[in-house]
Amino acid sequence: MKVMLLSLMLPLGVVLVLLATALYLAWGHRPRIGRVRGVVLAALVILYVGATPLAGRTLGTAWASLADGRMLNAPTDAHAVVVLTGNMFNAGAVGWLPSRESYRRVAVAYELQRLVNLRMPVIISGGYTHGVKAPSEAAVVAQFFANNRPEITPTELEESSTNTYESAMQLAPVLAKREARNVFLVTSDVHMPRALATFRARGVDAVPFPAMSLPGALGYKALLPSVSGLALTSDVLYEVYGTLAYLLGGRIGWSDIFYHSN
Q1: CA-to-CA dists, residue 109 to 122, 159, 210, angstroms
Q2: For the chain, what is the mean pLDDT?
Q3: Is there a single domain that holds both residue 122 and residue 15?
Q4: Quick check: helix, strand or coil at residue 191?
């Protein structure tokens, strides 16, 4: 039910609702042609604007700017790197592979580990999002990198969580038990505001280290609609709605979203 409701709030879902409304007005006992045209025009405008890379980039940049957090005076003092996975896919005979987003995030985490402290553990968080018959996202990503990295690096898996809230719930007591106060949090830039707020609400004041996913310099093609542009806009809106849902559900508070230095 929640997934269906969320889908209807994304650009494509809004367009479908508007088109269904237009059909209802056109086929009613008293067709209202003027209103039908207005609804259809609104649907086309929303679809066009929402599918442009410029819209996704603008919304994403504004949203990602909320991901403010503490910084370490000496990065080498960090105790761990927590990285949240971003899905996986079944490649058939090859088996399960990390999605491009998961690969990007974990690659950033390992590079951060290499630059800061090779003894600092990378904790990959991602559970059984595709059912119990499939492996966990954390295990799939870790195995992929283990097969393609010659060096041995300290890696730990958190395989119980299936969303951001559960990741924070699972890892907060683990980090507290270790007295790991200086923790890097790695996820995508548009996911970072919600992730930071969720971990802060569990008592983990993480240091944000986003894996950049927003497009760089844009040319005239930024004004042309595309599937990737629609996906980017939808991803950003998904994070906005997800954060609002966490607020309404009491999983985070307003103070957790906005960083206040001590």
Answers
A1: 7, 17, 9
A2: 91
A3: no
A4: coil
